[in-house]
Write a structure and sequence with these properties.
mainly alpha, 0% strand, globular, 83% helix, 337 residues
Length: 337
């Protein structure tokens, strides 16, 4: 890990831990110990098992989408790249650092860079479309509950939703009119170059010029003979997000509380939206605070801090542990190659 990456890694952990300590301290009371003595370990193990199921579904999505473009990538290779990308995702704002890892690993599986980029970006598109659809559905079905959450949370929800819709719209525009989209992107980058006068911008422009063409060729492949991959990828995406969202309900049952499935899944959708905004590494602090605000609506205060810690341990800290192991395996492969 490079020096700059280590800085973000330690910052991410420190910020997250500080917020968790604050949340626990502010919610701890005499009833908290009663909840701790009645924790059901079996449910916590099931919650951890769901993380592995999530990784499996993600890996399957990459495999079927790659296969639709004519590339047979081993499932074990897909699984390891998914887990390895979790480490970088945990230390980059908006968890965006995982994409280059997946692109690199697909390239190592003999997939052209353009097609590898198309697969990874199409993954993001599917995730964005699903989250937009789920959010709109939640607004229609549970609109009153969402409005009662407060102006701040409502603003963040709509702001995050707008960013996702913009992201999807830009990619669809690029797929339908690649030349026009590229012209606008390059004009924007040249404008930034003229304003900032930074040498590094020139390298970004040169790289964008090449990668945009690679991306468009890959998207063309998906929309022509790779449509099956989009359909299969969508199915695995829905299953992936369900397995992610249901973890919190399982943890609640482990604490002796009702699963509150509808309220919990709504909260998870909102947290997922907020976490995509590149504010802090791995959404550290943001995820904890937003989860506390949302789950405080239906989880007793005495156990709220414990719940947030357990949820974050399974959904964030275990990602780092698994990610380190998978990254080490990649390094060993690179060294022995």
């Amino acid at each position: 890990m490079e020096k700059n990456q280590k800085k973000w890694f330690y910052l991410s952990l420190a910020f997250s831990m500080a917020i968790l300590v604050f949340i626990l301290a502010s919610t701890f009371n005499e009833d908290t110990l009663q909840y701790l003595t009645h924790i059901n370990i079996l449910f916590l193990l099931i919650a951890i098992g769901l993380r592995f199921i999530s990784f499996s579904l993600w890996a399957a999505r990459i495999k079927v989408m790659s296969a639709s473009l004519g590339y047979q990538v081993r499932y074990s290779h897909c699984y390891n790249m998914v887990v390895a990308n979790l480490l970088i995702g945990a230390i980059t704002p908006g968890q965006a650092g995982g994409e280059p890892v997946r692109i690199h690993e697909l390239y190592k599986a003999d997939m052209p860079l353009g097609d590898a980029t198309a697969v990874v970006i199409m993954e993001r598109v599917l995730d964005a479309v699903i989250l937009v659809a789920l959010t709109v559905f939640s607004l229609l079905v549970m609109g009153k509950v969402i409005w009662d959450m407060g102006e701040g949370i409502v603003f963040v929800i709509f702001f995050s939703l707008a960013l996702l819709i913009l992201f999807v719209a830009v990619l669809f525009f690029a797929a339908r009119k690649p030349e026009s989209a590229k012209d606008k992107v390059m004009r924007l980058l040249h404008w930034i170059e003229a304003k900032m006068k930074t040498p590094g911008i020139h390298r970004i422009i040169a790289s964008t010029d090449v990668e945009f063409d690679n991306f468009c060729s890959g998207i063309t492949a998906f929309t022509s003979h790779g449509k099956k991959g989009i359909i299969q990828g969508s199915v695995f995406s829905v299953l992936f997000w369900f397995s992610e969202f249901i973890v919190a309900s399982v943890i609640l049952m482990g604490l002796g509380l009702p699963p509150s499935i509808s309220e919990s899944i709504l909260s998870q959708i909102i947290i997922a939206l907020i976490s995509m905004i590149p504010l802090t590494p791995g959404a550290s602090g943001i995820a904890e605070l937003s989860a506390t605000s949302l789950y405080a609506l239906f989880v007793p205060t005495a156990v709220l801090g414990v719940f947030i810690i357990l949820w974050r341990l399974i959904m964030f800290y275990l990602n780092i542990v698994f990610g380190v192991i998978a990254t080490v395996l990649i390094f060993k492969r690179e060294i022995s190659a």
